[in-house]
Amino acid sequence: MSITKLVYFFLFLIFIELSHGGPTLQTLETKPEYFNPKLPPRTLSSSKKFEGSSDLVNLRYHMGPVLSSSPINIYLIWYGKWALPQKLLIKDFLLSISTTDRRAAPSPSVAEWWQTVSLYTDQTGANVSRSVVVSGEFADVKYSHGNSLTRLSVQQVIANAVRSAPLPVDHKNGIYLILTSQDVTVQDFCRAVCGFHYFTFPSLVGYTLPYAWVGNSGKQCPEVCAYPFAVPAYMGGGGPGALSPPNRDVGVDGMISVIAHELAELSSNPLVNAWYAGEDPTAPTEIGDLCEGLYGTGGGGGYIGQVMKDKQGKTFNLNGRKGRRFLVQWIWSPILKACAGPNALD
Q1: Which of 73, 81, 130, 287 matches a 20 to 30 Å C-alpha distance to 263?
Q2: Measured between alpha carbons, how far is 24 from 42 in angstroms, rounded to an integer?
Q3: What is the pTM assigned to this prediction?
Q4: 211 has which bridge partners?
């Protein structure tokens, strides 16, 4: 997820908003409470129905595969020191993707959010799978490649997990998700990215495997990678204040939206030759990039949109399994040609 792309995206939204009429903003008198910190004036609202919608976005299919085989197997690599509650929180989010029973996860749910991702198809018409499972875990507690990683050494961490056999080689259904603890620095982390996805090089790992990396920004740059649970100093008094995270962990709650972003893009563009906008596959604009910073109705131009908060003031927009709640960015819909989420109010 590129920070540079986020800045340009907000500027793009403002351009679109200034050229369109605004929606009628809604407020529901229900529990939990819906709210939107510092709602933008109507002249700065986006399209009349769907936030971020534009005929200028040219998201195209480039004939490559999507992750259509069921289930999608996620192999977790915990790099560094992780507390058990942090691991359980992240795994509950991942397992909520396939929790379709509304009694287990009421609407708006993580599973409903993933339905937008599942709209993407390959050239045979097969959709991204709606079934996601955690199929294996490996704890690299000894920091096998030190506490400062490069993009290449991230792949070597995967190689270590595969060669030592705690994790299988899964070409067809597998995603390898590397999560680094808050004391680990990674190339470009906080400066240009909060997470990224790609595929491994056979020369380094022995196989071509789709993977994603996301770091815990809690101590390094929460105002960059855990926004809106932390805000930059320059926004003091001039924008919405920091929101309360749904699980009271700024770093991990911030990670979850980045994890969601990367998984959505990895599933729809695993080999960087499927769904993206732009002509450069080395720097594609993907289905998460198009909606960075948007979490609800009325969002755009730097406003996150209308979300929910509970009686303790904790902010969320999605429900998950075991009573969990999460704040997750919206995803570009190929049907609506706009950013979409199940907590939309219009």
Answers
A1: 81
A2: 8
A3: 0.86
A4: 176, 198
Tens digits of per-residue pLDDT, 50-90? 445 455 578 999 999 999 999 999 999 999 999 999 999 99
The per-residue pLDDT for 177 is 98
Cis geometry, peptide bond prior to residue 32 (ω within 30 degrees of 0): yes
C-alpha distances (whole Å) from 24 to each of 42, 47, 337, 339 are 8, 11, 20, 18
Relative to beta strand 132-140, strand 72-79 is: parallel
Q: Sorting pLDDT into bands at 50, 70 and 90, what band is 322?
A: very high
Instruction: Tell me how far apart the alpha carbons of residues 280 and 85 are, in angstroms, rounded to a whole number.
Output: 40
Paired tokens of 49: 């129905």
Beta-bridge partner residues of 33? 309
Contact 299, 327 (CB under 8 A): no
